[in-house]
Amino acid sequence: MGISDDTDIQGHSMHILDAKKAQIEASLKLLAEEVGTAIEQAVQCLIHRDLAECDAVIRADELIDDRRRMIEQDCLVTIASQQPVAHDLRDIFAATHIASELERLGDYACDIAACAKRMDTGALDGLGLDNILDMTRLSREMLATVMRADADNDVQLARQVAGMDDAMDALLKETIDQLLTAMHHAPELVRNGSSMMWVAHHLERCGDRATNIAEQVVFRLENVVANLG
Question: In Å, how far are 12, 67, 98 from 25, measured between CA atoms?
Fold first, then answer.
């Protein structure tokens, strides 16, 4: 076999590897979109107290789980069949971790829907709803930002997510303080107030997961284990 033949085979293998990586990235993008939608729908369940809507969010989590498993399988097959090295291998390992973090975000959407199902029909005035909506917007912004950083290979944008997580932590503290005060003065609000506290906690964890994804982006681009939390 001549040198030109070896070069052709190597080029063909790299083309297949690049195609596999592009397929994995496309699947990650779709999974992130599905997770973002699930979070938004779960909070709408909270606002409307619509049990059917809550059940739909919970059922849809099975599709999110399936997509994560498909991504992980694609990553394993790519490693086994293409034997990537260096940055290609980091890209694929990072993709498996990102898929896992996205799946956990979907779990938090389910948890929020479950909280909504436990609530009574009482009004949420004074129970931190405005903060919950702010946390929802911020969690989706963090998710969109970190996935854009991943797609664009933008390590600085990934690092910005950590600063956004500080704002999420501040919103959580403010929400908990407001809820504790409200429940102290009106014990009849305890049922809904405790559920709202859990919702705030789940949204804050969404921010943590987005930060974890940012760390994976930094790892694959700079080959360093970053602690952005």
Answer: 20, 12, 10
